[in-house]
């Protein structure tokens, strides 16, 4: 089938390639002239035969919202838009309503797999009407990993369910990564285990904690055994925050995911105002020693 694909960055570029390899025609649009197949969004739409299916794969937030709004102006009744980005699920109902008023269908699709998806396939979780899902199934089949459909694809529910599923998936991702990371630090700190990379590598087979994330940690340690080339600074693009917010909304205890999110926030601080307050209070009530700030952070002297 034919597909319009908006956004040919790290994800969209590889997805275009995988869909083409499966024998489908893709007209991709990106602002980068080196990778685009069309001069503009309007040009991309003009190159597609109606009824059209357009996949949006641009950064979540305003860019996705604007792109979908523009598509609403360019597309016509009977067309279908799929948002494959990491959008917040609350945007989906609004998009579906705005497009639906013009007779344009809408699906939200959580896509997992990162830069490895080209070869391994992408895990897909979709929200929307069954008829729309059925229509786009050749594209979903091209993108998902080989093997049984139900092991790499889910029609999770109504509009919003795909992005909700991806949000929870990413919350789990935060927690799993944090657990491996804390284990790594403890192994390193204790010095009891003499070869940390080899020990973690051995966990890849037979153990209870084997996983693809563990494989990726092994891969990182192969090129940088103590991860010395990196700073312990971790950004987040929203999914973990939204997961914690939903956990609060539903009164679901989510201590692991919350702690993993807060660990990322802490990673961005050179010094902690909260811990300065704890040190100050401990000094106030117990006269316990504090470390003064000194000329540069962390190089201060101990005072009682
Ligand atoms: O499943 C995936 O392929 C990843 O989760 C992917 O979607 C992306 O790498 C995250 O969005 C990063 O999220 P953070 O920036 O929040 O870590």
UniProtKB/TrEMBL annotation:
InterPro entries registered for this protein in UniProt: 6-PGluconate_DH-like_C_sf, 6DGDH_YqeC, 6PGD_dom2, 6PGDH_C, 6PGDH_NADP-bd, 6PGdom_BS, NAD(P)-bd_dom_sf, Pgluconate_DH
GO BP: D-gluconate metabolic process; pentose-phosphate shunt
Gene Ontology molecular function: any one: phosphogluconate dehydrogenase (decarboxylating) activity
Keywords linked to the UniProt accession: Gluconate utilization, Oxidoreductase
SMART domains named in the record: 6PGD (SM01350)
Pfam families, sorted: 6PGD, NAD_binding_2
Bilayer-spanning residue ranges: none
Family matches, as SUPFAM superfamilies: 6-phosphogluconate dehydrogenase C-terminal domain-like, NAD(P)-binding Rossmann-fold domains
Domain 6-phosphogluconate dehydrogenase C-terminal stretches: 162-289
Family membership: Belongs to the 6-phosphogluconate dehydrogenase family.
Name under which the protein is recorded: 6-phosphogluconate dehydrogenase (Decarboxylating)
Organism encoding this protein: Saccharothrix variisporea
